[in-house]
Write a structure and sequence with these properties.
Layout (H helix, E strand, L loop, with lengths): L1 E7 L2 E6 L9 E10 L2 H7 L10 E2 L3 E8 L12 E4 L2 E2 L5 H4 L10 E2 L11 E5 L3 E3 L6 H4 L2 H13 L7 E5 L3 H12 L4 E6 L2 H6 L7 E4 L6 H7 L5 E6 L4 H9 L1 E9 L12 H5 L3 E4 L5 H12 L9 E4 L4 H9 L7 E5 L1
Parallel strand pairs: 11-12, 11-14, 12-13, 14-15, 15-16, 17-18
Antiparallel strand pairs: 1-2, 1-4, 3-5, 3-9, 3-18, 5-6, 6-10, 7-8
Helix pairs in contact: 4-5, 4-10
Length: about 350
């Protein structure tokens, strides 16, 4: 099979590899579409300890069942599927309570083993989710990142009628803004240093965009809320400045959700967390119910995905990742058609 392989920091190569051989309980999937996550870019830049080359990146992928064993319910050759890319143990307390994403033994495609930027992948049948015929493979590849955004907003508590800040206009930040708006947030403010993305985000009915390349945005953020701060903030970047500003600009009693992982260790002033009772919470991945909700939202055509996606091919992989790595790319969401 052809595969786009991460072979060294900032280096991807198109290689011919042996097709994966499914183990017991696995199904061979012919991959048709795979999205690029910010964490894939993090790995491409050599900043992810767990993404060790040579590795096929990609955990946002859909495809067709190429071969399955008799007796696999609902899994028939030719069936269109999305991949739930977290492979958990299935027996621990987290798996038993529908929190597989927190399973201590979890393994993730494109992180712990080869992912979806290839023609084929071997996938446990329990990780396959049928997608309707009305949904394209490219559209289906957005189920995973949209599920991530749904989980983040769920961690914000109630957002209806409230004001929110999204720090970072990458794919996950963009989708968090969309989900928060869909769930009734009154005002959404997005901060980023990429002017191209900020302009495009107006298509998602973002109320206010602030370009942080012109200086620290705290004063502008507070001005937008009359000095009070926002009710909830989502840090989709994950460095010290973004986390600190998210806390600083959140109103007393508000919530900050940290999902970005740009820096492993961040030094922040935690006094506002104590004196203003700002609730700082983490969010990781998604549950199966989040995944199902994302599929439902896409099936109901609630996300204007075609205006946000840039389709490309594996042969353009190096160029796409190089472009995204500049930090000034006009691409909102890159999806490889395979």
């Amino acid at each position: 099979m052809k595969a786009l392989v991460y072979t060294a920091p900032r280096r991807l190569e198109m290689l011919e590899l042996a097709d994966p051989v499914p183990k017991d309980g696995e199904v061979l999937v012919r991959v048709r579409a795979a999205g690029v996550c910010g964490s894939d870019l993090h790995g491409f830049l050599g900043r992810s300890k767990k993404r060790v080359p040579p590795l096929i990146l990609g955990h946002e992928f859909t495809g067709e069942v190429a071969a399955s064993k008799d007796g696999d319910p609902g899994i028939a050759p030719g069936g269109a599927v999305a991949v739930y890319p977290i492979v958990s143990c299935g027996t621990c307390e987290y798996c038993a309570s529908e929190r597989e994403h927190l399973c201590p033994a979890r393994r993730v495609y494109g992180l712990d083993f080869h992912g979806g930027l290839a023609e084929y992948a071997a996938v446990p049948s329990r990780c396959l989710v049928p997608i309707p015929a009305s949904m394209s493979f490219v559209e289906g590849s957005l189920i995973e990142p949209l599920a991530n955004a749904i989980h983040v907003v769920r961690r914000c508590h109630e957002v209806r009628g409230r004001t929110g800040l999204v720090y970072g206009a990458g794919p996950i930040g963009m989708l968090c803004a969309f989900v928060a708006r869909h769930q009734g947030a009154r005002v959404i403010i997005v901060v980023d240093r990429n002017a191209h993305r900020l302009e495009r985000l107006k298509e998602l009915a973002v109320d206010v965009t602030i370009d942080s390349s012109h200086g620290n945005p705290v004063a502008s953020l507070l001005e937008q809320t009359g000095g009070r701060g926002v009710d909830f903030a989502i840090d989709a970047v994950g460095n010290a400045e973004c986390r600190q500003n998210s806390i600083t600009c959140t109103a007393s009693g508000g919530t900050v959700i940290c999902i970005g992982l740009e820096e492993e260790i961040c030094s922040v002033d935690t006094r506002p967390v104590v004196t203003r009772e700002v609730d700082v919470r983490g969010a990781y991945a998604y549950s199966r119910s989040d995944f199902a909700q994302a599929l439902s939202m896409l099936d109901r055509k609630l996300l204007p995905w075609s205006r946000l996606v840039t389709k490309t091919s594996l042969a353009q992989g190096q160029a796409i990742f190089d472009d995204l790595a500049t930090g000034n790319s006009s691409i909102l969401k890159a999806v490889f058609e395979i």
